[in-house]
Amino acid sequence: xxxxxxxxxxxxxxxxxxxxxxxxxxxxxxxxxxxxxxxxxxxxxxxxxxxxxxxxxxxxxxxxxxxxxxxxxxxxxxxxxxxxxxxxxxxxxxxxxxxxxxxxxxxxxxxxxxxxxxxxxxxxxx
Length: 126
Known about the structure:
Helix content is about 75%, strand content about 5%. By secondary structure, the chain is mainly alpha-helical. The protein folds into two domains: about 90 residues, no CATH class; about 40 residues. It has a two-stranded antiparallel sheet with strand order 1-2. It is elongated, with a radius of gyration of 30 Å.
């Protein structure tokens, strides 16, 4: 029995790894499972029927294909977005936005202090 080198928490019997190499790798690589679920499937592989093994393989292949398609789409969108709007850092715009934000914060703080002072006056006059 060998702990999987890719993950420290999975224990895979040598017999399981030898008898089901493709399913073992697909289970380890599944993005939809946590390690507890992976370990469960690795543990039950030897007692599954041929039909169950086939179904599990189909499910894991389908998941991988869908994840590959999603990753490809995200990659394409990212590249497209990066190509369309290469963002360049404009120090003067950054400084102006920062200055404006600081001024607004300062103004807000001043207004808040004035409101607090008025409220304290109202409370003291009661």
